[in-house]
Amino acid sequence: MTPSQTHQPTLSELTGLTPLSATTTCRDPQAAYSELRAKWGQIAPVELEPGINAWLVLGHPEICQIVRNERLFSRNPHYWRLYAEQVVSPDSGLGPMMFPRDNAYFSDGDKHRRLREPLDDGLASLDEHKMSRMIRAACTELIATFAPRGNADLVAEYAAVVPMLAVAGMFGLSTDLGHQLRQALIALFGSGADSQAGNQNLERILTNTIQARRANPSDDLATAFLRHPNLRNDFELQQSMVLMISAGYETTTTWIAQTLRLMLTDPRFAGRLRGGRLGIDEALDEVLWRDPPMSNMPARYALADCQVAGQPVRRGDALILGFAAANADSRVHTNDPWLEVGNRAHLAWSAGPHACPAQRQGRMITRIAVDTALHRLQDVVLSVPAEDITLLPSPWTRCPASLPVRFTRTGPIPHA
């Protein structure tokens, strides 16, 4: 064959690709993933934004291989060819999620271990019993604000507020600052035109918090980070807080909202409200499989030319980890529903060195939030057809934009 006959287009040369955001905002994401698999296999080229392509890894074993091989696939965006060559605009909405930061998320090897340790130490130092009481009280107080109405939006008034209060509480932030953080993070995870502005607001709040804790230390994670010897300067400190807060807020909001949606719409789980056999813990796990808090996780960057599932990945290519797609991979499931009970081989928490450090805390917050809502809101049902529930725009997450419900009105609810 002549060279022209053997040439395969590079990732950047491919056109007409499926936008990544189309896989998260469509009604049936698994159908979208199936179409990509049918055309490309277990790794498919997608468009992150016009002219900016990446590989979406769809297969469960392929993701596991990639996340455990730091020598070939780096978390450091400096190795992303389109970033290094300034093809991606500095003002891109992808920036807050994919541009370099001095924290554990964007590091490998020794640097990753150094920056990960403050996160692990900080989480280990939390008083989980105290945290549990605080979260349950916050959930009860939130419900008391709308219970007398007999209707509410369980995203805007609840699922999006509980993690904000929990995360703000862990870092010693006021409720007002927590609400500001929420608006900043909605913009950041949307990866749209306001993403950079949201990131700047987030960093401003955290810089002010660092200065306040330096002057007046307290018993919170901000002070614990400030005192940790592994964080060598204020920028590493700020970016470690960005990581902990952004990951903790967005993923927990999505998990709460999707679990409430599941229990209010799926007959297998809705039966729990009337004494059925499937309850909250099963619903939590079902969501981690079907609609994980991060549907698509950015990113790994190839350090050398290689092949992944038969596709030619070139040095500097970006690979997005398709957790929602991989969780549906038939290679990690059986045809026996009884054998599936207790199966936690999902990738909702990722795997390898970068697996989520806050799995216990995330599950605790989500379980308390869902349990409190279903316990306190009598006869709660959706007030719109399930098919009318829309999603917040994001290429990374599938969080319901709202969950309008109605229920039996009640008077003031006593504190938990």
Task: Name its key features.
10 strands, three-stranded antiparallel beta sheet, 10% strand, 416 residues, alpha+beta
Descriptive account of the structure:
This protein is an alpha+beta fold and 416 residues long. The chain is 50% helix and 10% strand. The chain is built from 19 helices and ten strands. The strands form three sheets. A five-stranded mixed β-sheet has the order 1-2-8-5-3. A three-stranded antiparallel β-sheet has the order 4-10-9. The longest helix has 32 residues, at 234-265. The radius of gyration is 22 Å and the shape is globular. The N and C termini lie far apart (75 Å). The model is unreliable at 1-5 (pLDDT under 50).
Provide the succession of SSEs.
Answer: HHHEEHEHHHHEHHHHHHHHEEEEHHHEE
Radius of gyration over C-alpha positions, nearest whole angstrom: 22 Å
Mean pLDDT reading: 90
Strand line-up in the sheet with most strands = 1-2-8-5-3
| Uncertain runs | 1-5
Cα distance, first to last residue? 75 Å
Shape: globular
Largest sheet descriptor: 5 strands, mixed
Helix content: 40-55%
Number of strands: 10
Total helical segments:
19
- Overall structural class, as computed from helix and strand content, comes to alpha+beta
Give the DSSP E fraction (strand runs of 2 or more residues). 5-15%
